Amino acid sequence: MLKSINPVEVVFCIANITDLNNSLLKSHNEKVAYLSYRIAEQFGLTEEQQQEALFAGFLHDIGAFSEEEKLRLLKTEDEDVHDHADTGARIIESFHLFKDIAAIVRYHHVAWNDGKGRRHNGEDVPIASHIVHLADRIVVLTDPNLEIIGQVKGICEEIKKFSGSVFVPELVDALLKMEKRECIWLDVLHPKTIDNLAADLKFSRTKIGLDDGIQLSMMLANIIDFKSPFTAYHSFGVAAVAEKLARLVGFSENECKMMLIAGYLHDIGKLAVDDSILLKPAKLTPEEFNDIRSHTYHTYRTLQTISDFETINIWASYHHEKLNGKGYPFHISGDEIPLGSRIMAAADIFTAVTEDRPYRKGMDKCKVTNVLKSFVKDQSICPFVYTAIEENYDELEEVRANAQHMAEERYQHVRRHA
């Protein structure tokens, strides 16, 4: 039974899927994270500070929700460059163990400005913020289509031009000491760099309890849901309903916590779906719908990278499988679908039809039960789980509404400056 989670693996799994659908963005966060870690190491920061720089590198752009904004940030640091950093910090600080990482992300575009960059808006700027800023600009200057070693001298010369004005001189010095280390630069473009680094890092063995794991998965649910105003707090409703259903049918306390995590992460695969499809207000084409259908596959492959997440992964990733075998993407049926996955499937449907969306109100009780009964009749959802919903409908609806109300407040807090 799962009792603890490796937070490094969770953050790494996000890096493996973020911007998967855009070749220009692919691996940007991984490269920034890796270089941030190496610069922090060269600069002589502690192992804990190196880990914080690594995590901040992975998460530095999560406040930029659209691909258009992310692409713009690669090209220029304009007047509103701090907006996405502040939004990202608001998301990250919801997980209490990442408070210091949130501060790094908030200020990762602050220029050194001959020392004035030690503070910004009356607050101290962590040295790791300047490290992530430097790593980010190095990656922007790197052409992934060219041999890397031949680019290093030119990149370092370009960075040196802005030593003191944009970048901390001592950090530039640390970079120059890394210039001759071919292994570092080859790692930047190596497809398995992060996987290899995860295996080597001493702090990658750190574990957190399930309660902290729930808080971390809630933070990740914000990244998933906030991409689209149509589903800005959907995962919170699904998680709350699934967890309540698990309790009603007799799951243990640990299993209920695992169900919460699975609920928060069940749509993580949508990070691999193009924004134009997720945000499309009109009816999807068959090709676009196929892209949407792929999200459960991406959820499965992403969560596979986290050791000890096998059960959580199955509960999360099978939420569009059906008892009649006509679900997706694995087309399993009947007893092949575990009870946890059946609960998740029913919770997803229940939440989808009862929650309000910008383009329509949620269904009333009568319509919801009719919809669910039709799904039971054609063997799309489990009759046992439906009975639990029918017998506890009002309680489940209250659980969903309360969870999504709290998520909406969180959404407004995060997006108020976005």
Give a quick account of the main beta sheet: strands, pairing sense, barrel closure.
Answer: 2 strands, antiparallel
How many β strands by DSSP?
4
Q: Number of helix segments?
A: 22
Element pattern in H and E: EHHHHHHEEHHHHHEHHHHHHHHHHH
pLDDT under 50 segments (min length 5)? none
Shape: elongated
Layout of SSEs?
Blueprint lengths: L3 E2 L1 H9 L12 H16 L3 H13 L7 H9 L5 H12 L6 H8 L12 E2 L2 E2 L2 H15 L7 H12 L8 H10 L3 H8 L3 H8 L7 E2 H16 L8 H15 L4 H13 L9 H4 L7 H8 L1 H9 L6 H8 L21 H16 L10 H13 L5 H9 L1 H23 L3
Describe the overall structure.
The chain starts with a strand and ends with a helix. Helix 13 packs antiparallel against helix 22 (393-415) and helix 14 (253-265) crosses helix 18 (310-317). The strands form 2 sheets. A two-stranded antiparallel ribbon has the order 1-4. It contains 22 helices and 4 strands. The longest helix is centred in the C-terminal third of the chain and has 23 residues, at 393-415. 61% of the residues lie in helices and 2% in strands. It is an all-alpha fold and 418 residues long. A hairpin with a 2-residue loop joins strand 2 and strand 3 (123-124).
Could you list some keywords that capture this structure?
two-stranded antiparallel ribbon; mainly alpha; 418 residues
In short:
This protein has 418 residues and is mainly α. It contains 22 helices and four strands.
